[in-house]
């Protein structure tokens, strides 16, 4: 996701905190009708009042309507992970700086930690879980596995979402355009070179065909080679790349886990 794509559809958490601050947090959130379906149903000039308590809302996530109850201050990232259990979208910086929480909003890559869940109403949200599964991966996910484009996997779902959105928008990007599309995604493990290779391999395979029309790729047969030079299956790899399963320490919850890495 390029840094210039971080503009938000309505009220960001940052602008909410700056503009409304403690007063709105205490008194509830008053909003002018905007993009969401619920907001559009309001008569012109009538403001929507939300909170301060939890509100029942409906979001369209990965093609399905999901009902949840959240306070207006909850981010889309928080709602996905805490309310809906979709932990494939990663929480890393929580301030719009790393891209790990990238999801698609109406096909555009956005940082879900910078969008309020209530502002996602009426939009199509796609998370890494909605892109593909370990059994039937999206072409970009399969290419990441083939090109070893992930290590710890924290940045990976966000990186995949940014690449997938870029290729959907332009099926034949140049190397520089792919770099630009992932400029907002930080990888501390330094997988950039392999990420670019993976993206370019999808360009070669799919040509000018829309990824949306293409069949998801079967899980690649690729195995990882151990340090001893022995080929080993990588059972966690396909789960990391599709966001399934609590493979990362921060995603493990329950007794004995403090939720920290
Ligand atoms: S967690 Fe959202 S940008 Fe880093
Ligand atoms: S694979 Fe570890 S941060 Fe990117």
Tell me the CATH superfamily of the domain at 132-246.
Answer: [2Fe-2S]-binding domain
Q: Categorize the overall geometry.
A: globular
Structural class: alpha+beta
Low-confidence stretches: 10-37, 223-233, 254-261
> Helical proportion?
25-40%
Main traits of this protein?
261 residues; alpha+beta; DNA polymerase, domain 1; five-stranded mixed β-sheet; two-stranded antiparallel ribbon; 31% helix; globular; disordered C terminus; binds FE2/S2 (inorganic) cluster
Protein model, in words:
This protein is α+β, with helices and mostly antiparallel strands. It has a domain at 132-246: Orthogonal Bundle (DNA polymerase, domain 1). The chain has ten helices and eleven strands. It has helices spanning 13-19, 21-27, 37-40, 76-83, 128-131, 139-146, 156-169, 175-181, 192-206, 235-242, and strands spanning 29-31, 48-50, 55-61, 64-70, 102-105, 108-111, 124-126, 136-137, 217-218, 224-225, 231-232. It has a five-stranded mixed sheet, with helices on both faces. Strands 1-2 form a two-stranded antiparallel ribbon. Helix 7 (156-169) runs parallel beside helix 9. The chain is globular, with a radius of gyration of 19 Å. The two termini are 25 Å apart.
